[in-house]
Each structure stands twice: as C-alpha cells, then as structure tokens.
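Example (one chain per record):
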Amino acid sequence: MSSLTSALITIPTLLNIAAIVWLLWWTSRRRGSDTQAETTGHVWDEDLREYNNPLPRWWLGLFLLTVVFALVYLALYPGLGTFKGVKNWSQVAQYEAQSRQAEAVLARTFAPYENVPLEALTRDPNAVRIGKNLFLNHCATCHGSDARGAPGFPNLTDNDWLWGGSPDTVLTTIRDGRTGVMPAWKPVLGDEGVENVLAYVMNLSGRKLPAGDVEIGKQKFAEICAACHGPDGKGNQALGAPNLTDSVWLHGGALATIRQTIAYGRQGQMPAHLERLGEVRTKLLAAYVLGLGGAPQAQPGAPSSAAAGSAAPPNTAPPAVAASASSATASPASDAPQPATATSSAQSTATKLR
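Predicted structure:
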C-alpha cells in the first residue's frame, strides 16, 4: 500500500471519529431557557408540541463506548492504512499459526499408522474409518460420498480397474495421480469410419447396431486401437486402456456418448495427492478404497504394479480417460468435442471406462 493510499484511509477515518465525538457533544447540550424548553415548532391537536431535548445520558454513554472501542481496536489491529497495530496481527499469520496447531493434532492422530503396511491398514477398523473421513473430505466431490462415481468419474466399488486394483497400484494412483488421453479419431477415420468402429466396439460387448460395418470396423480397430486396447478389446492395465468387452462405461454407455468419444476423444486426470496429503494419509485413503469391495484379490492376466509402473509412469500415462484406481478427485473429461491431435497408434483408447 502506498503512502498516499494509506493517508486517504487514515485521515478520513480519524476525521469521522472526531466528527462523531463532536456530534455527541453537540446533542448533549440542553436548549432553550431554564424556564422554557426549546421545541421543534411542530404542533398537533392544537397544544401537542414536539420538544427538542438532548439525548438521554445513558444513550450518549453507549455511543461514547462505541467510539472508545473503535479507537482501541484501531490501536491494536490494522485499520489505519499501513499502520499494523500494536499487536502486529495479520490474517496470514493467524492462518499459519492455526494451521500449525491443526497439523500438530493431525500428526498425533496419524502417528500410530506411519510404519504400518498398507495390507495391515485394510484390516484395521480405525484406520479404515479415518480413511473414509479423508475420502469424504478430499474425494467425494468427484467419486461421490458412496464412491460409486459419476459420468466421467470411476466407480470404486466394482471390480473394473483401468490401472489394476492391487494394493500397490491403488496406492500409486492416489499418491502420484494418473493422466489419460483418448485421442480424437474422426480426422483419421472420417464419419463413416467412426460408425464402423462404433459398430465393432458395440459388438464386442454384445450390442448390435443397424448402422456401420462390423467387419470393416474390426479391421480399423486392429490397425488403430488394438495397440492399447488389445487385439481382443479387453484393454491393458499397464497403459490404463479400458476393457471394451464388458458393460462398464466411464462416460456412459449411450451410443451418442461412445460415438463422441471415438470421434472427438477424451481427456481426464486424477491429481496426485502425495504432496497435498502426505505419505500416511494417502495410505489410509488407499486402505479405505481397497475395503470398498471393488479391489480383486488377484486379476488373471493383469500386470503387476511394478510392471505397470515401468510400462507407464503415473503422470505420463498414455491413453485412458481417467484413472479408475484413483480414490481422490479426478478432473472430468469434457463432453465437448476435442480438437484433433497427432498421436501414434499407441494412443487409441476408445472410450469405454468405468
């Protein structure tokens, strides 16, 4: 704040207080002679007159107390331009002090779980309860309070996982986040090609369409999409590519939605929470998510978390439209058409996702 701005705040404030004090003094004077009180000149019903008497003493005293309070407050706390007040208080300093106090309390709460393995936390009711509270505070906005997700946000209670549902994989997703991209294929396929691929993708999950050529769509799928989704369309958890053969769809299973995804692509992000929440809280969150019932004991053919990590680092993941193993907030993939991007065939994730 400049000195001029400070003066423009300080001088009018003090002048206003001085004017209030003068007004209180002026209204406290008795008007008229000792024998006859002053009137306002208003007369009703021939002899009913309005007197101009001073305010009662107790009323004036209350006004004076407010003036004293204002002066004391302005002396202790900032309010007069650049003057910081005797207490040198600021909202930033108060926030930091309260944050330190809260962190100290939280540290004592989380300390017993610091060195406990994730698998053991999933069997600890208190740890799971704390994880649920963390989930409701940090993750429910996207995944819902019941963790069943919404269009564009994964359901964490079923057994369909983009990156795998093992404890290590779920923890990695929460800690480091995931980024998924389904490129737009309309510039490559054209309108007819999109319809053909759509017909084949629907055929994979047992749905027959009157439009589109399934055989041509199958050929295009093998050329463009199989690199990520696999030749059988069952996805690849190492890449975060979804399984297209079941009936679980992240953005919804309506034909218009799936057609839009193939044509215009999707983008989604599960943000990393390690820096924000710390090691212990991310483990507690993972313990709660693993206890929701959606994490499988073993997934046939699913890559190990180590292999998944080596194949695609969490924050540089190729195609997939949001992280299914995530338990915290994920940014929605826009339903609006996305601009076409030049990508390799390894980025061919067609939309199916939770």
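Caption: The longest strand covers residues 39-44.
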